[in-house]
Amino acid sequence: MSLPAACRLLRSTLRTQLVPVANLSSKPAKHVISGVDQAIAMTAFFVAILGPSGWVLSHLEDYKNKKD
């Protein structure tokens, strides 16, 4: 009885060791970032990611009714 190709591929990927993508370290940070700096950075990320999608969703009816 032979396994399907997808099962064999999954088993081979589970057997091999994956190369870590990021270099993780348990050392303390070189530069201390304050809470205010972190809050500003997180706000900028959220606005950059959620802003355009929120714009599209809020104007979805305008896009549906637009006839060219």
TrEMBL record:
Main subcellular location: mitochondrion
Annotated keywords: Membrane, Mitochondrion, Mitochondrion inner membrane, Transit peptide, Transmembrane, Transmembrane helix
Any matching Pfam family: COX8
Listed GO CC annotations: mitochondrial inner membrane; respiratory chain complex IV
Protein origin, superkingdom: Eukaryota
Stored Gene3D superfamilies: Cytochrome c oxidase, subunit 8
Membrane topology of the entry: Single-pass membrane protein
Annotated pathway: Energy metabolism; oxidative phosphorylation
GO biological process: mitochondrial electron transport, cytochrome c to oxygen
Transmembrane segments: 39-57
Compartment annotation: Mitochondrion inner membrane
Assigned protein family: Belongs to the cytochrome c oxidase VIII family.
Name of the protein in its database record: Cytochrome c oxidase subunit 8B, mitochondrial
